[in-house]
Specification:
With 491 residues, this protein is mostly helical. It has 20 helices and seven strands. It holds the Pfam family RNase_H.
Length: 491
């Protein structure tokens, strides 16, 4: 990213200008601070420097430096601590007095336009012939900072964020990657499906309140437990019971169906209960009704016909025909099954924002309320299913004590496993275990590579930001004009 500054009418010169480039951690504030730093280097000692900039963040950072006696907070609370520390050292060494003023960006002033063209990276912007400094990348020699016992480094580059925040981000990345590489989510983590999900909003709907709250709320805990079990396919269905207690459950088939169908997480909500109507059709209609009701409540001034029209544009909410959940895992796009599990499609967020006139906070609130109401319906279905299963267990002599008794892991357990897989040859079983081991090692290696990549993104920001227009820097001045950049007065 580029930065530049201009000092008009200096002695025999019409103006003095400077531009340069800086890499890593792209942000407009960092470019502004770098421009201020390079400008202060050429200021005479004991001078008064008046800086006019359009960056409120840069002004706030400079105020922190000028008012801060102890520089410790520069490193613990602020981003770009290396530049801030060096600005502080220059100010102290040269005994400069700095005054900052906020000006309006893109005001059409002559020097504003000059600074704007200086800040643009040559070769990337058409019409700019400022090639004299092309390729000039300025790096900071952080070894000259003497009042710090250590400076956090990542791959020979100073960490330009507080260490506390950096460690939090690393742990967040590890949790994200551990979540991503679980076997249960492999079908949803395809490039297409993964990009169709609003992940931030998805996880917000799983935690009605802060998980770090000191107050224990049973209702809140139950909501969170059900939502997470539904998302992670961990509801105690008969398929789970059969795996954990094969001595009690002879089969994983649903007891409410006429057909022998395995009862997994999704079958609980797709089971026809010996009827003919697909339950997904009813659930889809209920979801749309709740969504329309919540939107109308938040936006009473919008015609209900317009709301229904926009909601109908979300294809994932339009029931067409009965679909198989197992086959839907191989679809390239999301399906309503994924909405039942708790994933929020981006298209849904976009359409609700459109109705709410691009008010993101209001749109998010509507979707969170809709998911909470919809999960009450799902939980009621789950409760009705559990009541039926309990009746069936009582008839078959399965007690709570039996279910809670731990299964002894001995030769009998091994025999049960062998009986269950009697049609699998020993050689094939060995190959399967070897393939499982190879697959696990491959996933671990990929996790390590991803962790390093995203850590580089945090500490170096090498790939995330491609545009250069976002990081233009303008420090412009005219000694006698209202809009100016740097004006220094000798004492």
């Amino acid at each position: 990213m580029g930065f530049g500054w201009v000092i008009p009418e200096v002695k025999d010169y019409e103006r003095l200008t400077f531009r340069g480039n800086i890499k890593n951690f792209p942000s407009s504030t960092r470019a502004e601070l770098m421009a201020i730093f390079t400008a202060l280097i050429v200021m005479p000692k004991r001078s008064k420097v008046i800086i006019y900039t359009d960056s409120a963040c840069a002004i706030q950072n400079i105020k922190i430096i000028t008012k801060q006696i102890n520089t410790r907070k520069i490193w613990t609370e602020n981003k770009n601590p290396v530049i801030l520390q060096m600005i502080n050292d220059i100010v102290q060494e040269r005994r400069l007095k700095i005054i900052c003023h906020k000006v309006k960006a893109h005001s059409g002033d002559k020097y504003n336009e000059i600074a704007d063209s200086l800040a643009k990276i040559p070769g990337f912007i058409e019409g700019i012939t400022n090639n004299i400094f092309e390729g000039t990348t300025i790096s900071l020699n952080y070894n000259n900072i003497t009042d710090r016992s250590f400076i956090p480094i990542w791959k020979f580059t100073p960490i330009e964020t507080p260490v506390k925040d950096a460690i939090k981000e690393i742990n967040r990345l590890k949790l994200m990657l551990n979540f991503k590489y679980q076997e249960r989510f492999k079908y949803i983590m395809t490039n297409t499906k993964c990009r169709e999900i609003d992940w931030d909003l998805t996880f917000k709907t799983k935690h009605p309140s802060k998980i770090t709250s000191d107050i224990t709320n049973k209702e809140d805990s139950n909501k969170r437990s059900f939502a997470l079990k539904l998302l992670c396919e961990e509801l105690p269905t008969l398929s789970k019971r059969y795996i954990h207690k094969p001595n009690l459950y002879s089969s994983s088939s649903c007891i409410l169906c006429e057909k022998l169908v395995e009862e997994d997480n999704m079958h609980v909500f797709t089971c026809k209960r010996k009827g003919q109507i697909d339950p997904i059709k009813n659930l889809t209609n209920k979801f749309k009704e709740i969504l329309i009701e919540k939107i109308k409540k938040e936006e009473p001034g919008i015609d209900i016909k317009i709301i229904k029209k926009v909601v109908s544009e979300v294809d994932i909410l339009n029931y067409t025909y009965e679909k198989d959940y197992t086959l839907s895992k191989n679809y390239s796009d999301l399906s309503f099954f994924d909405v039942i599990k708790g994933f929020i499609p981006n298209i849904l967020v976009t359409k609700v924002k459109k109705i709410c006139r691009n008010k993101k906070a209001k749109a998010n609130k509507i979707i969170i309320d809709v998911l909470e109401e919809f999960q009450k319906i799902l939980k009621q279905i789950w409760k009705e299913r559990c009541d039926k299963v309990i009746e069936w267990e009582i008839k078959n002599g399965i007690t709570n004590k039996d279910k809670r008794t731990r299964q002894i892991r001995n030769d009998k357990r091994t025999k049960i496993q062998i009986d269950k897989t009697s049609n699998i040859k020993e050689g094939n079983l060995h190959i399967s275990k070897m393939m499982e081991k190879i697959n696990f090692q491959r996933k671990q290696k990929q996790k390590e590579e991803d962790l390093e990549f995203f850590t580089n993104e945090i500490f170096l920001n090498t790939f995330t930001y491609k545009g250069n227009n976002l990081y233009k820097i303008k420090i412009f001045s005219d000694g006698d004009m209202a809009i100016s950049s740097i004006n220094f007065i000798f004492f």
